[in-house]
Q: What sequence folds into this?
């Protein structure tokens, strides 16, 4: 007795179908259309929050990037800044503390939109000026 | 007429009307908004954020909201459809949009929490890194200020307090985690939901529960996981509050690990601080 040609062709497909059926059930729970998640790290300028934390209040503080400067008021702890997009950024930071302030620290945190946070702690007695460069390997 | 205009702008007698599509965002908006803002909680603690779909009644509930805060990173694949149903004065803010994304690696995509997060998978669970929640607070501060400029000093002051609280919370969490010997910082969970936590706080991550409805993974994958966990003598594996613990229990049995107290993966909590405290406490108790 021989199998009909049709049955012979179909038999090898049975285990495949058995595998495929539950898989299809799982995957087709609802035909899902992945939406493009918008990349925030595009455009000529990076928008970032520049956050500062101080042990002692300062009198004046300025941050300069390229041709732009931002001054922080003594009660200010964060500012939105914009600078040219790139895999590195250099901040020129200058701080003046009130007289009689002991040697103290100021922590800077740069939080660019869509990009990893970078931070740096700057120390000074009375005043401090420092150039700080943050880099990112994985950013364009 | 004036009254009508106020209503139209979402600035009513009780302040700025907004809505929230995620319990942790609700908590954050309440902290930053204080009593200038009233929040309609559309997705409440206990609801499954991965499966939620807004109904007509939800859209009606949001009708007064000037801003609708979502978590973003494609946690809410329905946002595009929702947008088409909004009125002119309403906008959607995806709070997590500007937070640096982490991807679920190719090999881990079968462990994603639901099909939406398995495709090209940006991990949507950004809230498990406390610094990311600080970023979220700032996003909320800026958006509330844009919608209600008169409240700017209130929002700035509240945001500062909220971020300082988060700094303290993070210092506490890091201190707790430091009590786990470095070599034992290996977090085994059901789904790929703790990637941000593991990267931020120096844990190796292993996920064991697959994408299918009943959480089955292939026998080969299961055997691989079991071998890895045995080799590393993992003392505890952690279930999630909303996931089926079956596979995890099976793995625990075969590796000699205990099943820990469930972690909160999706932020189904009234308080962000409570979620972090609970997760960190359970992880530390199980691994140290
Ligand atoms: Zn999911
Ligand atoms: Zn999840």
A:
């Amino acid at each position: 007795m021989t199998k009909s040609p049709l049955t012979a062709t179909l038999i090898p497909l049975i285990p495949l179908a058995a595998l495929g059926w539950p898989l299809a059930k799982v995957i087709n729970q609802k035909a899902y259309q992945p939406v493009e998640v918008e990349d925030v790290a595009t455009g000529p300028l990076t928008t970032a929050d520049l956050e500062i934390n101080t042990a002692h209040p300062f009198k004046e503080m300025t941050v300069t990037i390229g041709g732009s400067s931002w001054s922080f008021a003594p009660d200010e702890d964060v500012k939105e800044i914009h600078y040219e997009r790139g895999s590195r950024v250099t901040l020129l930071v200058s701080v003046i503390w009130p007289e009689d302030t002991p040697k103290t620290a100021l922590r800077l945190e740069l939080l660019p939109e869509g990009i990893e946070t970078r931070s740096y702690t700057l120390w000074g007695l009375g005043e401090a000026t420092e150039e700080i460069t943050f880099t990112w390997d994985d950013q364009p | 007429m004036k009254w009508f205009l106020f209503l139209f702008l979402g600035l009513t007698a009780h302040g700025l009307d907004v809505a929230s599509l995620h319990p942790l965002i609700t908590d954050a908006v309440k902290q930053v908004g204080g009593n200038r803002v009233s929040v309609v909680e559309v997705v409440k603690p206990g609801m499954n954020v991965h499966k939620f779909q807004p109904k007509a009644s939800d859209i009606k509930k949001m009708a007064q909201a000037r801003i609708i805060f979502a978590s973003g990173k494609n946690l809410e694949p329905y946002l595009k459809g929702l947008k088409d149903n909004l009125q002119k004065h309403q906008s959607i803010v995806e709070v997590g949009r500007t937070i640096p994304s982490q991807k679920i690696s190719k090999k881990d995509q079968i462990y994603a929490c639901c099909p939406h997060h398995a495709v090209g998978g940006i991990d949507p669970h950004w809230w498990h890194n406390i610094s990311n929640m600080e970023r979220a607070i700032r996003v909320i501060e800026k958006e509330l200020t844009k919608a209600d400029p008169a409240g700017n000093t209130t929002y700035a002051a509240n945001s500062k307090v909220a971020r300082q609280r988060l700094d303290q919370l993070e210092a506490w969490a890091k201190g707790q985690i430091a009590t786990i010997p470095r070599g034992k910082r290996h977090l085994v969970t059901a789904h790929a939901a703790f990637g941000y936590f593991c990267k931020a706080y120096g844990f190796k991550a292993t996920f064991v529960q697959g994408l299918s409805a009943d959480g089955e993974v292939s026998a080969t994958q299961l055997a691989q996981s079991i071998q890895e966990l045995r080799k590393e003598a993992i003392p505890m594996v952690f279930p999630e509050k909303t996931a089926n613990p079956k596979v995890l229990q099976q793995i625990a049995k075969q590796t000699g690990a205990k099943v820990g107290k469930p972690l909160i993966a999706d932020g189904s909590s009234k308080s962000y601080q409570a979620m972090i405290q609970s997760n960190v406490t359970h992880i530390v108790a199980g691994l140290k």
